[in-house]
Amino acid sequence: MRYRGYPIEQLAEKCSFLEVAYLVLFGELPTEPELKEWTDKITYHTMLHESTKKSLEGFRHDAHPMGMFISTVAALSTIYPDARNVLDPEVRKLQIYRLIGKVPTIAAYCYRHSLGFPYVYPDNDLSYTENFMNMLWRMVGPMYQANSALARALDILFILHADHEQNCSANMMRSAGSSQADPFVATAAAALSGPLHGGASKEVLKMLDEIGSKDRIPAYIEQIKAGHGKLMGFGHRIYKNYDPRARIIKWAADQVFQVTGRNPKLDIALELERIALEDEYFIKRKLYPNVDFYSGIIYQAMGFDPAMFTVLFAIPRTVGWLAQWQEMIMDPEQKIARPRQIYIGHNVRDFVSIEKR
Ligand code: SDX
Fold this sequence. Notes:
Elements: E1 2-3, E2 6-7, H1 8-14, H2 17-26, H3 32-44, H4 51-57, H5 65-79, H6 89-115, H7 128-137, H8 148-160, H9 168-177, H10 183-188, H11 200-211, H12 217-225, H13 244-260, H14 265-277, H15 280-284, H16 291-302, H17 309-330
Antiparallel strand pairs: 1-2
The site of s-citryldethia Coenzyme A has 20 residues, from helix 16.
């Protein structure tokens, strides 16, 4: 897996998320001055219009964070009507700053709303992930200090989730954007929340809880092989071998557990992987762990509520969606999306009145 030709392993080891975001969006790694300007621009746009707090208050206390997140991203189009001028490169760039800057703030506000806690404003002196953690977890007492190892692990997780070609949600972004709708409503159209896509990491935790202990893995796998459900976090539309991101996430898990203590679910996940990779059913179908198999275990250890996992996927993937959107808008051959279809319904026939039906 590579972003613009650079192996994901090297980027995860040597770059910050914003550095990789610049690469994914503009095609080259930024110089020092370019990275400083880029970081300053994103940081400048982390604040939300105060009216956003009022619209968030309209959600029930137990509203799903992803539903609140998507709705609030779409509502940005009501605050920034200039975003409709998608053919103007400067307008596009401003919306890219706004979206990448604001998605962590929106995510944190949704989380704080679900807890009934006051919102924490962005702190422009903090890095992208430290600021996000501060908005999530700072209480009214002493100043919150994000653990640097956890902030770096989150930065790496964001790098791994930044883009992934024409996946389900990137395709949605391109299709919605092809009507020249503004990038806020196009981003909100993204289908990431489904359990077969970005919602898988939460389903993995549910699966590991259902298994409960290593000795119950064989029976669970027999259930899957009998066609009762899927092994969540396994399989991929494209990867018919090990998802390279899963390998890096496993490494990042060790860094996180040195701080948080080991998540016992990891032992079940490792044993489940070991058994599945030796089983003919999964080998024959080329089913390997994907990016979602281990990510939820880390996020839970870091203190994230599983309801937030898809939002945690959406934050970095906003970069990839915007890169795909910008490439589509700039493509001179681009037309509005209308997939071909094969009609298999009735041929022409005359109307039948209701008395004769
Ligand atoms: C992401 O596309 C991307 O790039 C997505 C993503 C990204 O970064 O954007 O990588 C992120 O969405 C990762 C995927 C997260 N989803 C899950 O972990 C959910 C569990 N996985 C499956 O639902 C499934 O593997 C999919 C949806 C990911 C892929 O579905 P496909 O392409 O239909 O799977 P396939 O064609 O490879 O299936 C081949 C066979 C079939 O069985 P048979 O009909 O041949 O008997 O394998 C079976 C499938 O039923 N199968 C599984 C399985 N995944 C496929 N059987 C058990 N467990 C599974 N997880």
